[in-house]
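Case study: Heat shock protein Hsp20.
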Amino acid sequence: MSDKEMKVQHKQEVQQAGEPTKPERYFVPAVDIYESEEAVHLRAEMPGVDKDGVEINLENDTLTIRGVKAANGGENERVLLREFETGHYLRRFTIAETIDQEKIEAGMADGLLKLTLPKVEPARPRRIEVKCA
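Here is what the predicted structure looks like once written out:
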């Protein structure tokens, strides 16, 4: 197997402008974005985040995804080895005017956030029939 076939991707940390007010680390979740005739589909990888830890906001055509990762281990447990990087997730996207913002849907399962962003009706491809005059 060559180096080109397999690459390790490390978590990318969010670079914030200014000085942070909280001592928390934010990572950029890896995403895949697909398009169909009816919608744009976004998949964001957010391991360790459950449904209640996800916050999605839409303001001024900017979609913001935040994920709060639950703490590892229980109250009565002592950490012996920790290799998972801890922190939260944050990513922002500008939403095109071709997206119907009122119909955006989201779901979370197995550490994967799935967003469906339906297109507005005029943005969908359609075939125009030629009529005889």
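For the exam, be able to explain this: The CA atoms of residues 35 and 41 lie 6 Å apart.
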